[in-house]
Amino acid sequence: MKAGLALALLLLPACALATLQPPAQTWPIDPDGSEVLFSVRKLWFAHERGTFPQLHGTLRRIDSGAGTDTLEVDATVAAADLQMDDPDHRARALGPDFFDAARFPWIRFESDPFPLDVLAAGGPVRGRLTLHGVRRPVTLALQASACPGQPLACPIRVRGTILRANFGMQALRGVLANRVELNLRIRVGAEH
Fold first, then answer.
1. What's the N-to-C CA distance of the chain in angstroms?
2. DSSP-derived 3-state class of residue 155
3. pLDDT single digits (tens) 125-182
4. Which residues of the chain form beta strands (DSSP E)?
5. 51: how many CB neighbours lie within 10 A of its CB?
6. pTM of the entire predicted model
7. Which of 35, 26, 42 is nearest to 177 (CA)?
8. CA-CA distance, 176 to 50, in Å (whole number)?
């Protein structure tokens, strides 16, 4: 009996700490209100463009306990959802030289934690991009929110540039540039 009471007294501070820390907040990415666009220069002035019309994932708020809240993003697109104007270009892009959607059906970005205020003011978001079976660090630029007082009420806009050769996509090097410009529009749903 005394051992049980002593154990309960020892665990009491740990239970109190657990109840004082707020739970992490999570917002689902609204797939129907979010999209990823990319553009690659071909030949001299023309561009090859594509869209992934749905983005899936979550935005999660983490209480660091040090007075600075941070966010993390985990987002994926299905490679096979790629939309392009030319069906032949789409088929080539989904093939083994580029996205290789049959072997690598998902493209994923996992951010490092970043400060909550970057969501309103804009700034860099670092993380890892998995594309064509290769996982590499990338830095994207979160744009300043059109709704700085409530940044989740407006679309979140992200831009970035990746080098396709870094992800094993080196086909058509004489025709397509190595730099791929990314433009993301993200809407989040209600917190859960």
1. 41
2. coil
3. 999 999 999 999 999 999 999 998 899 899 999 999 999 999 999 888 878 899 999 9
4. 25-28, 35-42, 46-52, 56-63, 69-78, 106-111, 114-115, 123-131, 134-142, 156-163, 176-186
5. 16
6. 0.83
7. 42
8. 14
